[in-house]
Amino acid sequence: xxxxxxxxxxxxxxxxxxxxxxxxxxxxxxxxxxxxxxxxxxxxxxxxxxxxxxxxxxxxxxxxxxxxxxxxxxxxxxxxxxxxxxxxxxxxxxxxxxxxxxxxxxxxxxxxxxxxxxxxxxxxxxxxxxxxxxxxxxxxxxxxxxxxxxxxxxxxxxxxxxxxxxxxxxxxxxxxxxxxxxxxxxxxxxxxxxxxxxxxxxxxxxxxxxxxxxxxxxxxxxxxxxxxxxxxxxxxxxxxxxxxxxxxxxxxxxxxxxxxxxxxxxxxxxxxxxxxxxxxxxxxxxxxxxxxxxxxxxxxxxxxxxxxxxxxxxxxxxxxxxxxxxxxxxxxxxxxxxxxxxxxxxxxxxxxxxxxxxxxxxxxxxxxxxxxxxxxxxxxxxxxxxxxxxxxxxxxxxxxxxxxxxxxxxxxxxxxxxxxxxxxxxxxxxxxxxxxxxxxxxxxxxxxxxxxxxxxxxxxxxxxxxxxxxxxxxxxxxxxxxxxxxxxxxxxxxxxxxxxxxxxxxxxxxxxxxxxxxxxxxxxxxxxxxxxxxxxxxxxxxxx
Length: 544
Description:
The protein has 544 residues and is mainly α.
């Protein structure tokens, strides 16, 4: 027992460090599960509204098959809690607990948990090379104080689950084989699928590296088990996708923000401080939605440089021992860079790819993200090389100095994050305030926006209204939408309006002149209401 206490205390200290970093960045007002104001105020864009809307509809609905199906928000558009980015793993948990515990939002808890788990997993990783508390805690701080993590916790909350990548790296470097190891990988892939789809191929690639290393080692492959694992572990990831509702979407996996090769990793991105750093000069790199967050911080760069020097002047057998991991990480780096190489914002199509391959890869459109496991592995390898070269005590001092340098350098980034979320009233008033809306919620079960689609006109106001009043709606903003499904709904609803064959218990919020003209053509003035409320045209069949 006496040997376990330091490890437990150290892990607790690492968790506290991770919580402190998150608190320093975002504050504590995001934690109360009853407080949704900071998410729904509109200050930080539509994404947090999307997450809450998906959860609100999912929580009040019955359990369906697959469990992540969420037709209350999206209706025929193949909605699921997966595509609302509501972190299906937590949505399942809190929906199951709903008879005992009702939460309005769990993202504040998630953000803090991501910081704590990131630090604890980094502490565990460093435990593979040293037991010195200073080296392990300083490294844990560096792994949490990373722009690529903090940027995601400030908006794309599910993508903050990067501790799953550290768990995969830990499994890659810890000795072992057998059923327990296969079960650990299966659980990790299933969890990744139920957190965020981008994390699944990254964790899957780390499993492939570990599996390949064991399959090539006669002493570790474990007979027929290695073959069973090759089927069972990917199946666990696929099962997680199915449970979350991934397969309810029939198309549109490429999204609307550009395909593969258009949101790639610029080769200078790790040296571009962007709005994060205070010391290095700002340099030109790629200009897209993912750009600017691959900077590891000046402290991280110092560790990488010192670790590379330590490795170059010391024994290099570690790369041979982990050849499969190095091979997979190189593949992930190439995937992040893509066939259209960007250097300082200039693009060069180095390897022309057939259009059908690019179309299949479009689901991985934000390919810069595949740099994440590469950077984490490089940071761990550099810290391990410093320990091997300098000894645990001096390496701990060097890593602590790098952590202090990181904190000084990232002051602009933290200042920006500190004002990203702002204290708000616990709940936000509905933007649709006319008494009509409250009365309509008692008369109808469904509200449509016409035309519908990704962020269609009036989508946010109508979706928040529907979620608050318990109506189903096709007013959505989802991670992916099938354009064929959207077109089919719009064609059918246009015909419904024009013929006056209105759907039962449904009213319509009209978003353009064409929809208004069809509503006028098909309505019966004696029984239907066509009027503007809060600046929006509404057709309420049978209102009179």
